[in-house]
Amino acid sequence: MRTDGLVLVTGANGYIGGCLVPRLLDQGYRVRCLTRNPAELENRSWYSQVEILQGDIITSETVDKALEGIAASYYLVHNMTSGNKYPEQDFIAATNFGSAAGKAGVEHIIYLGGLADPETDISRHMRSRLQTGDRLRQGGVPVTEFRASMIIGAGSISFEMIRFLTEQLPIIIGPRWFHNYAQPIAVENVLDYLLAALETEGCQNQVFEIGGKDLITYADAILIYARMRGLRRGLVVFPMTPLNLLAFGVAKLTPVPANIARPLIDGMRSHSIVKNAAASRVFPQIQPIDYRMAISTALSKLAPAYLEPVWEKYADSVKIIKHAGFLIDSQRVCVNTSPEVVYRVLTGIGSHSGWLYLNSLWQLRGLLDRLLGGPGMRGRLEGELSVGSVVDFYRVDALDPSRLFRLRAEVKAPGAGWMEWRVKSQSGCNTILTQTAYFAPKGVAGFLYWYTLYPLHRFVFAGLIRRIARRAMQYQKQELAEKTIR
Predict the structure, then answer these.
(1) How far apart are CA 94 and CA 129, in angstroms?
(2) Hey, do 6-299 and 306-485 end up sharing a CATH topology, with the first three levels equal?
(3) Beta strands in 239-366 (DSSP E)
(4) Per-residue model confidence (pLDDT) at position 382
(5) Which superfamily, per CATH, for 6-299?
(6) How far is CA 45 from CA 79, 93, 169, in A?
């Protein structure tokens, strides 16, 4: 294989692709990403470290350009969002890509598909995933295909369906397929396999079935999660539950839209278990962890510090964003001052300076918290803050001068909350200020708490970000006036 270290990642704006790119960079590879919408990658921490090409994988011209100088490529795309004809779109895309890769002299394609037994009655979605691998191989390039069972990780579609449904519903209704078996695999192990395929001799032109240590039913997956979260949950199985009705319910309660939930739920009607142990022989250094450890690892990342702010594209619209276990309210404004001035206003809020907008309501929230046994309004130290500093009923969680200020709430509530402000320069506007409220609800009480208070919170937070912007501009005018006098 060529040693220039340039790797193509298709599907970098998806969950696995977004997790894989930083791992590749850490290993010293140069990365090129092919995506239909480069703007969706702008808020990724690694955006400036990769080469990005805009294009559709179905269009030969853009694929040819993306494959120039590439020795190895990851194929991590699917077309489930394109409607009922997504299998046909998948076949066209895979055929075009495989053919273009052969012409470009690509030496290796690494593909991640789904785990199912092709000899049994499997869903249209799972059949499409398997046939995509076949189409890629038709181009003549050696393909390493991984067929993964349900992937568990903060942000993965499968895990977020389990998380949001289990947290909100005391009784979960499902199809008879709930009793089928799967081998849930941690996203960390999936990434281990994908990375190892680049360097492992003898893995090309092979199909590897990968799963975790545990063989459990889909129903077990929900009940184990519930126990780990301290929730009591029941399951009711209706043999004739309409698929469209299930998908509609999932779309309303989770971050997964109906057009994606439908094929995923349908895919559960067959077992997803490892029958060929080739992966353990070819990649002995990878030891998959069990389901409980995978859940524990995902839950340990229930904090904003682990998130990429991919939702900021929605900050101009009134919308509750569901993402990686959080309910998120994000707003942004243009401030005609420098980022330094905005940051100074942010780090001065609280205590005697007040909360700039409807301060009496913040005081009332602190009083109620004190009555419930919480810390209430504790004030703050004057002068510069540091991580861990108290700001009323918050504590400073992160500080990055003139860029990031985040507070973690310590009030009594059925969940964990944060307030975060991001500050950045932008052409056409001196400073973009993004304000984000995060809430990680626990159980039904947590969701009721968020949705009951959301109209008030939205009103207060909208006023707060406007007042911060106004105060920053006042500071700027005062500084200019002082300089003029001097």
Answers:
(1) 10
(2) no
(3) 321-323, 326-335
(4) 79
(5) NAD(P)-binding Rossmann-like Domain (3.40.50.720)
(6) 26, 28, 35
Rounded to whole angstroms, the Cα distance separating 333 from 431 reads 8
Residue bearing the bigger pLDDT, 373 or 88: 373
Domain ranges of the chain: 6-299, 306-485
At 75 the pLDDT is 95
On whether the 306-485 domain is CATH 3.30.530.20, my answer is yes
Nearest alpha-carbon partner for 19 in 214, 274, 301: 301
User: pLDDT band at 240, cuts 50/70/90?
Assistant: confident
Tell me the C-alpha to C-alpha distance, in Å, between residue 222 and each of 160, 172, 215. Answer: 11, 9, 14
Cβ neighbours of residue 241 closer than 8 Å, sequence gap 6 or more: 173, 174, 175
Instruction: Pick the closest to residue 250 from 327, 311, 174, 302 (CA basis).
Output: 174
Which residue spans within 211-264 are E strands per DSSP?
Answer: 216-217, 234-237
pLDDT (tens digit per residue) in 169-189: 999 988 888 899 999 999 999
DSSP for 136-201, written as a single string: HHTTSS-EEEEEE--EESTT-HHHHHHHHHHHH-SEEEE-GGGGSEE--EEHHHHHHHHHHHHH-T
Find the angle CA(121)-CA(185)-CA(321) to the nearest 5 degrees: 95
Rounded Cα–Cα distance for residues 27 and 309 (Å): 24
Q: Which of 14, 318, 317 is nearest to 155 (CA)?
A: 14
Is residue 3's pLDDT more than 50?
no
